[in-house]
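Handout, section B. The chain below has 175 residues.
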Amino acid sequence: MTRPGEQTRPLLVVFAGLPGVGKSTLARQVGSALRMPVLAVDPVDRELWRHEVTETRPGHAAYGIVAAQAEMQLGMGVPVVVDAVNPVAATRRLWQEIADRTGAPLRVVEVWCGDETEHRRRVERRLVEEGTAGTPDWAQVLGRRAEYEPYTGPRLIVDTAVPGNPLPGLLAYLS
């Protein structure tokens, strides 16, 4: 509870997980429920690709753009939800550094789909719905899984293959 005249620090919520596990869906649900903007790396990356922006480390610019936007929002007192794969320690460190600079509490949600058949179905459905431009196919997701570094540190792990609605537990974790 906030006392009169006391300011609360805006929350930084970071969703992580492989493409197709359901993190974007959950990020949007949390953003909607808590009235927080959702900053997603994938649409930024696709837009850069559409404008033929090339880079030596693909995806690096999109993370930088989303990070800059997140830090600006947090600096203005606006809580933020970040939606990104966050496959390696360097990208995960980025969010911790922003939280440290802005004083924002950091909450990480790592999303998995424990049913590989369902995960593959989701990835293939996305290819049909979104098209192939910038959307990874199943082979690319498996490649990313092989490169995905184990997550360490405090976080909530959500398996979207488990029946039921994870949103109430997510909201409890974030409160």
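Note. Confidence is low (pLDDT under 50) at residues 1-6. Compare this with the example in section A.
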